[in-house]
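Hi V.,

Quick status before I head out on leave. The structure for the redesign project is tokenized and pasted below; the design run finished overnight.
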């Protein structure tokens, strides 16, 4: 019984942050799932009745193809050829179905199944001018689910992305007719279904995707959706979710890039002046912030739920964002600046970048998640990611999947380059998308070359302070302090990138490493040890890593203290002694 009581208490700690209206929407969502499992044809028939009379626009909107196929052809053609043969790759996992696509494959993860149900393959085939294959894949899905509800296939999130992808494929091919006789009815039915199943129980980027889908449907097909209501919803969610500093409020660089892509694409099809103005302002601030956020290699840091090579490349997306500006009609290299030398910040998101010559560091000193949306929260506050030139030295653990042991590891404080007390998580992260008890971020103070942040972890009588500074000569200094119970132990960690080679010094106060042709020394006030770690810098990828660990020592005031410094050394040239 004590275990049950503990679980209930944990769930209540999660629920206390959720507004009553949102909880009511969640109860409605769960009730409808039970109902539709009994009468699976009812919701589809209802949506189809309301979609009767829908007609495609005489001239379909055009979307920027480069946003659908950033490789400008080869990758889309390869994916299209695979899809036509029944072979699909998502999240690093390949399934070959041959002539009969298994839309209900029980061997794949929920996220993999979602990727299939988005019907991105239809867009790939359209871009490769394989209209017949695009129509065939669409018909295959429609045969399986066009008349019957399914918990995955008709979840509002895949419905939203699938609807948009079919519209984009029609735009590429010039008509819905190229996708088959039922394509218009397909989109209109999806839109009418979505209007009755908006994700107000989740909100966040899911509700934004719902709004984008309805606006897209209304601008491609007359009578497919209530266009005015969809535009109001889109304006509302954009106003809520884009912070004044330009970051998306879920505080994930990957989702920032995904949301920016959606806004660029939907902005290319709307004809409403007020909404265009709102989107243009949001795209402007998000684009500037994305340019600032880029790592030295041009990619994104892996803070929060982020991986590489899932969203559009950051550089291309910055260029696309610039293309939305008045007077710009062509894709051209952006002149937006990356983070400047010294210290700069996205204060609303709590992100700080420190740069000195070859050294680049980002510190996450922001909230764990939006108040009512714990899905992408990780126990990673006060974590850093560090680069030397274009080589990553200290990495975030990234994201392997949204379920299982790797999900739990990637959300834990131990997996991040932060401070822990007794190796416990600073916030109560559990399940795949839940946060119960939450840390309290007390203060964040930034100066010319240093930022200091203090938090109180949940469930631990402790107060943790981290100061990250640039003392000069391209050196990064991380100073940690912990006020905590007498028998507790505080540890600081730096999670090394898998490419980092440890040369020597384990157990000493100076650890020598090499990364991509550069020697680096990590110095510590106390002995530095190594523990085994792992990271997933791309979906489905697991790489072995090493984590530098330093236990803080108590001083005369009983505070545990310690510092580590990253000191870049010489470049290694061919033939240099090892």
């Amino acid at each position: 019984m004590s275990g049950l009581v503990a679980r209930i208490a944990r769930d209540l700690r999660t629920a206390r942050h959720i507004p009553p209206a949102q909880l009511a929407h969640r109860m409605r969502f769960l009730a409808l799932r039970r109902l539709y499992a009994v009468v699976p044809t009812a919701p589809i028939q209802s949506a189809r009745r309301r979609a009767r009379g829908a007609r495609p626009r005489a001239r379909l909107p055009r979307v920027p193809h480069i946003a659908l196929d950033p490789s400008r052809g080869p990758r889309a053609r390869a994916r299209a050829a695979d899809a036509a043969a029944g072979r699909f790759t998502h999240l690093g996992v390949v399934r070959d179905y041959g002539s009969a696509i298994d839309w209900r494959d029980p061997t794949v993860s929920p996220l993999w199944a979602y990727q299939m149900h988005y019907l991105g393959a239809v867009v790939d085939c359209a871009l490769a001018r394989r209209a017949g294959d695009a129509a065939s894949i669409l018909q295959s899905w429609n045969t399986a689910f066009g008349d019957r509800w399914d918990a995955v296939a008709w979840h509002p999130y895949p419905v939203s992305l699938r609807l948009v992808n079919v519209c984009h494929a029609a735009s590429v091919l010039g008509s819905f007719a190229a996708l088959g006789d039922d394509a218009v009815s397909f989109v209109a039915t999806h839109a009418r279904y979505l209007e009755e199943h908006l994700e107000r129980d989740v909100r966040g980027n899911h509700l934004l995707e719902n709004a984008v889908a309805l606006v897209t449907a209304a601008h491609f097909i007359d009578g497919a959706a209530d266009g005015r209501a969809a535009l109001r919803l889109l304006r509302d969610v954009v106003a809520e979710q884009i912070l004044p500093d330009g970051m998306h409020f879920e505080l994930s660089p990957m989702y920032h890039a995904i949301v920016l892509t959606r806004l660029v694409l939907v902005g290319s099809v709307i004809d409403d002046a007020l909404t265009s103005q709102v989107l243009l302002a949001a795209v402007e601030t998000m684009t500037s912030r994305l340019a600032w956020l880029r790592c030295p290699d041009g990619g994104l840091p892996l803070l929060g739920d982020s991986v590489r090579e899932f969203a559009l490349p950051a550089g291309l997306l910055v260029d696309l964002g610039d293309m939305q500006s008045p007077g710009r009609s062509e894709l051209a290299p952006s002149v937006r600046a990356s983070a400047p030398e010294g210290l700069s910040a996205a204060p609303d998101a709590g992100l700080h970048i420190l740069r000195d010559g070859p050294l680049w560091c980002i510190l996450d000193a922001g909230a764990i998640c939006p108040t009512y949306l714990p899905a992408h929260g990780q126990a990673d506050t006060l974590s850093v990611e560090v680069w030397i030139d274009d080589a990553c030295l200290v990495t975030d653990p990234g994201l392997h999947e949204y379920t299982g042991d790797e999900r739990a590891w990637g959300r834990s404080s131990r997996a991040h380059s932060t401070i822990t007390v007794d190796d416990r998580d600073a916030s109560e992260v559990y399940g795949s998308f839940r946060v119960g008890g939450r840390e309290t971020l007390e203060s964040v103070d930034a100066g010319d070359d240093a930022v200091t942040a203090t938090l109180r972890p949940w469930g631990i009588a402790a107060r943790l302070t981290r100061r990250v500074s640039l003392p000069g000569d391209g050196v990064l200094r991380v100073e940690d302090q912990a006020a905590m119970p007498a028998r507790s132990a505080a540890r600081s960690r730096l999670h090394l990138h898998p490419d980092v080679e440890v040369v020597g010094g384990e157990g000493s106060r100076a650890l020598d490493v090499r990364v991509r042709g550069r020697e680096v020394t990590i110095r510590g006030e106390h002995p530095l040890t190594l523990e085994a770690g792992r990271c997933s810098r791309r979906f489905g990828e697991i790489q072995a890593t090493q984590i530098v660990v330093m236990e803080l020592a108590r001083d005369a005031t009983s505070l545990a203290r310690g510092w580590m410094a990253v000191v870049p050394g010489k470049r290694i040239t061919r033939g240099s002694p090892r």
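Above is the designed sequence. Residues 273-293 form the longest helix (21 residues).

G. will cover questions while I'm gone.

Best,
W.
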